[in-house]
């Protein structure tokens, strides 16, 4: 496979030119900024205040061990909510027109135990450019060898059961971030086939200092302050991250690994069949687009099509853009993939796992 991928020249595929004009016209006609509005600030306060409150209640030592375990699980869910609703928009530069505001709220990613600088390389650059392209988009490589999502991968005997064991593996996603993934990605020379940049010296400091502070606040401090055994702190930490990882892992998979989404390969010269925007339509799907609960929890990631096409637009505006994007896609004879509920998307994902676990 060629390491230098080239998408079809956008000017030869007028879909995105037309779509951008219509989306720009929407914001102009409505007199709106594409960045955060009052409703977005309410969401930010809800998740950040809820996170701090849960953490404070755990450290208060006012509750029994089972109540603290429940609080830890809730803290993990709120951490995922911060990732979806606060960090994600800010790291894409979608939260505000002011870069310092995006940097400030992008640093909320440290609350998940993850590094925002590494995320911006692996997600903003690599995943958003090479979405679902095997060998390039490492975001679809969840436990390589254990989970088979690409028909080009070798089929192993255990893959026939992958639809049964993937959920526990998804639950490990945030633990991998905290202890493994960020370090590996930071020091790799390439992510997929994308050459890693020369990291500024301050990012070395941020990586190790951020991790040390996280370990201190979520492992060392509870051991010092709580009237519980060290292993009980460890179990609470594990429960928090299993909940966080499951929410993060499942939401991501339902956007890119469901029936209808493609995993296209370049030709021998590294040329992709489609223009970049059309590629996004073929590799991305929405789920539960009419659910206010899904929108509030997932930070617009249930509308991944709109997000991939307009990553610098705050997700609070995605519901208004949905009809524009869907109608324009249909006008140009392009797919617009949707699962109407979380349940139907999850069932579709399981069918993909089952299909990829069997011989073609």
Structure description:
- The protein has helices at 15-30, 38-59, 65-91, 99-106, 116-129, 162-170, 173-187, 201-225, 230-256, 276-283, 292-298, 304-309, 318-331, 342-356; strands at residues 6-8, 190-191, 194-195, 271-275, 285-287, 337-339.
- The longest helix has 27 residues, at 65-91.
- The strands form 3 sheets. The chain has a two-stranded parallel ribbon.
- Helix 3 (65-91) runs antiparallel to helix 4 (99-106) and helix 3 (65-91) crosses helix 9.
- A hairpin with a 2-residue loop joins strand 2 (190-191) and strand 3.
- Helices cover 59% and strands 5% of the residues.
- The protein is globular and about 65 Å long.
- With 360 residues, it is mostly helical.
Percentage of residues assigned to helices: 55-70%
First and last CA, distance? 22 Å
H/E topology pattern: EHHHHHHHEEHHEHEHHHEH
SS class: mainly alpha
Task: Look at the structure and give the mean pLDDT.
Answer: 92
Main beta-sheet annotation: 2 strands, parallel
Strand element count: 6
Which band does the percent of strand residues land in? 5-15%
**Morphology:** globular
| Rg calc | 21 Å
The number of helical runs is 14
